[in-house]
Design a protein that fits this description.
- This protein is mainly alpha-helical.
- The chain is 41% helix and 7% strand.
- Strand 2 (156-160), helix 7 and strand 3 (182-186) form a beta-alpha-beta unit.
- Helix 1 (16-38) runs antiparallel to helix 6 (134-151) and helix 6 (134-151) crosses helix 7 (162-174).
- The radius of gyration is 18 Å and the shape is globular.
Length: 221
């Protein structure tokens, strides 16, 4: 299913073959991560694990091939644990209406092997919107995150929240990179964050101060 890109925030690739290559490489990294996670033993108290990169693979692939098909000088790195976003759609921070109506992405969504009754996966039919051996889990994810940074030739990481800032710093300190990457901290938009008033206004200023708006201008033809 082909849908026209609806925002200048997303630019299409100039070369079809190269865009297919980079999308495929990213999806291979997702598969590599999942193979490693299969070996990770959760503690007994964890009764269910939701991995939408597996059970929501169809919309995930559509998102990757449509919007993750070129090098990205800037990457937004955030944690998305909510049960009514990516857990339902397979798209990061994927609130259903935004994914379906704005990004133009839909597709079949399956079920995790074990499902929590109050956190049922309904895919695009969902009507709602929004610690084991943790260091080993971080190492598995950091390793693949490093490869994603290299694949997309990232120059700037905008870390959304302190957790992601910490993980980004740890990744950059642990793995060698072909070129330097800058980390910028952005306050998480969650209402649970203290002193989180006027988040939009604060971060418009953040974009201006860090000269990030240039990345959202449609290139002249």
């Amino acid at each position: 299913m082909e849908t026209e890109v609806v925002s200048s925030f997303f630019t299409s690739s100039s070369g079809e073959s190269s865009s297919e290559d980079i999308s495929d490489k990213f999806l291979h990294l997702v598969d590599e991560l999942n193979l490693s996670l299969e070996q990770f033993q959760m503690p007994e108290r964890v009764k269910a694990v939701y991995n939408p990169t597996i059970y929501a693979r169809e919309p995930l692939e559509m998102y990757v091939r449509k919007y993750c098909n070129t090098p990205k000088p800037i990457i937004f790195f955030g944690m998305n644990p909510g049960p009514f976003g990516m857990s339902q759609t397979g798209v990061p921070f994927g609130e259903i209406k935004a994914v379906r109506d704005w990004l133009g992405i839909t597709g079949s969504v399956g079920k995790p092997p074990v499902e929590v009754k109050r956190r049922e996966v309904l895919g695009f039919e969902c009507k709602r919107s929004e610690k084991p051996e943790v260091q080993e889990l971080y190492r598995i994810c950091d390793r693949v995150f490093h490869k994603v940074l290299e694949l997309y030739e990232v120059e700037i990481i905008v870390a959304i929240g302190k957790f992601c800032e910490t993980r980004a710093k740890e990744t950059l300190n642990t793995f060698s990179l072909s070129k330097p990457i800058k980390i910028l901290y952005m306050q998480h938009p969650s209402p649970r964050v203290r002193n989180n008033n006027n988040w939009i206004e604060k971060n418009i200023l953040f974009f201006k101060e860090n000269n990030l708006l240039q990345y959202y201008k449609q290139p002249s033809v």
